[in-house]
Design brief:
This protein is of the alpha/beta class. The chain contains 18 helices and 21 strands.
Length: 542
């Protein structure tokens, strides 16, 4: 509109002040990368977003790339600054250059406006700040621990929030700044599951917070079709496509399991038939079956920290996890709990992690004389025909950098090939946030992986028992017994009278899973008692 009359100018200014979409489509121009400065003709989905911005205090957008949302929120911040007094608008960006680019967009729009449509003057202008004569400001800054904490905000915009460093702590600091009635617009493409942005958006969809969710996949744009999508994404990985265009949280992150594998596990979950034990934290899906063989793997924590102690009961006959514990309990009480459920499940083979607090759990299991505890065999040194009692075998599973990689590789293989049935929602939730960080798989920051690690140990034992590949109960039983230790039969014998056969247990180099009967090279077990004195006489050499 060129040179309107004074009365028409007043009418237009009033319309623009009341309707931001009218302001955009009538007077705002934007910088196009190819066509230069062009009229900002908004699409229907953009107008819907603006309506949500105006009606809701809190808006959160899950979006595809290249939908013009950053341009839209830049135009919205300019509209608010021009037509409302004393508005403090803050934009949080992933880095400095992104913050500066946001201000550049706003400047371009402002300078292209007809002079008569602009009420306030621009009184301060730099790369990160615009200040107007009506008291309104637009400031864009990169993320930092104290970003915006000291300000009272009228509008907070967080761009690409899923990629903002430490967004969880940042959000905790920023939330009080809008407590007096300020508005919030958070927008981002997805970046895996488990972060603060993921939580805010999924909670918004579930109606668990005050945010109005807006989901904008690639096809909301009216100028895009299947041909465009195919051409645009032909050189991208599945993860990149999920992140950049499909608005898919699970597939966008570097999750330990693939999207399809996670979905299979999700569909397999079901409520337990019983919740028992301390604080009802033992979930049971199937009760013990007579003549079935079970193993119990465990991950041990201190009992009063952020981490949890966990265990899984795996039925070798049916290849399924039938019970699970996740709770906070002292290590010695955890040992008692393991013994209780070990006895309940047909004297199951119990294998706790022996690192750190796990040692206290193992001591308790030994103290109460639980008879089916997993031991790994250390290398034995032979002196003649005899093995001196200098190097006792080690109870439990030792998790190291090397063994951790091995058991997680086996875990991924077993879950990918659907070798064990899993029913736990708790376990599924941990798997969703178990991601690759560089070359290491671990729980996402702020999330636990205790169930994952416990189950990984169980899967290793499951694999060692040939539980997934053998259908014969007798074979499974035989393999299980080959891993078991029955101390009470030979409790008066030295622990290290062992046969040094190699085994693929990753717990130690050249380690073994001890058989239920101690043996010595060249001597039958019936002769062992008669040779103890001779063996002990060799100790001085060591």
């Amino acid at each position: 509109m060129t040179n309107p009359t004074k009365s028409r100018q007043v009418e237009e200014i009033i319309k623009c002040g009341k309707d931001p979409s009218y302001f955009f489509n009538s007077y705002v121009k934007i910088q196009h990368p190819v066509r230069g400065l062009i009229k900002f003709d908004t699409f229907d989905f953009q107008d819907d977003c603006v309506e949500t911005f105006s009606e809701e205090r809190f808006s959160i957008i899950l979006k595809s790339r290249q939908l013009g949302l950053s341009t839209l929120v830049a135009a919205y911040s300019l509209w608010m600054a021009l037509y409302q007094r004393d508005k403090n608008i803050l934009v949080i960006a992933t880095k400095l250059t992104v913050a500066q680019n946001f201000i550049t967009k706003v400047k371009t729009m402002f300078r292209a406006l007809p002079p008569w449509i602009v009420l306030p003057e621009l009184v301060a202008n730099n790369k990160q700040l615009l200040q107007f004569s009506n008291g309104s400001t637009i400031k864009a800054i990169p993320t930092s621990d104290d970003a915006g904490r000291s300000e009272a905000l009228s509008l907070l915009i967080v761009d690409e929030a899923a990629f903002v460093k430490n967004f969880d702590s940042l959000w905790m600091g920023l939330y009080p700044t809008i407590s007096t009635g300020g508005r919030v617009i958070i927008l981002s493409t997805p970046n895996g599951v488990g972060g603060q942005y993921h939580k805010l958006y999924t909670d918004a969809e579930a109606g668990l917070n005050e945010f109005a969710p807006i989901k904008l996949p690639w096809d909301v744009h009216p100028e895009r079709d299947d041909e465009w999508f195919s051409e645009t994404t032909k050189n991208l990985s599945d993860r990149q496509i999920a992140q950049e265009y499909l608005c898919d949280f699970a597939a966008s992150g570097e999750t330990f399991l693939s999207k399809n594998d996670l979905e299979y596990i999700r569909l397999s979950t079901r409520p337990p038939v019983e919740r028992s034990g301390p604080a009802s934290c033992v979930w049971t899906w199937k009760y013990p079956m007579s003549e079935h063989e079970y193993i119990i793997s465990a991950d041990v924590s201190r009992g009063d920290s952020r981490d949890y102690s966990t265990f899984h009961v795996i039925d070798l006959n049916e290849s399924e996890c039938v019970a699970e514990y996740k709770g906070k309990i002292p290590p010695d009480r955890f040992g008692e709990l393991l013994a209780e459920y070990g006895k309940k499940y047909n004297n199951a083979l119990v294998c706790p992690e022996n690192n750190s607090y796990g040692y206290a759990t193992i001591l308790k299991l030994k103290e109460i004389q639980y008879s089916n505890l997993y031991f790994k065999k250390r290398k034995a040194i032979y002196i003649g025909d005899y093995v001196p009692d200098y190097n006792p075998d080690l109870a439990g599973f030792t998790t190291s950098g090397r063994t951790r990689s091995l058991i997680l590789t086996k875990l991924e293989e077993v879950l990918r090939n659907k070798m064990i049935n899993i029913y736990s929602t708790r376990f599924y939730e941990e798997l969703k946030t178990f991601i690759w960080v560089g070359n290491k798989a671990q729980g996402m920051k702020g999330h636990n992986d205790d169930l994952v690690m416990s189950f990984a140990i169980g899967v290793w034992l499951f694999d060692a028992s040939d539980g997934y590949s053998k259908t014969s109960k007798d074979l499974n039983s035989a393999m299980l017994k080959a891993m078991s230790v029955t101390r009470n039969v030979y409790e008066d014998l030295p622990d290290a009278i062992l046969e040094g056969r190699p085994h693929n247990n990753p717990g130690s180099e050249g380690s073994n899973i001890e058989t239920s009967r101690p043996v010595k090279r060249g001597i039958h077990s019936s002769d062992i008692k008669n040779k103890i004195k001779i063996i002990n006489d060799w100790k001085w050499i060591l």
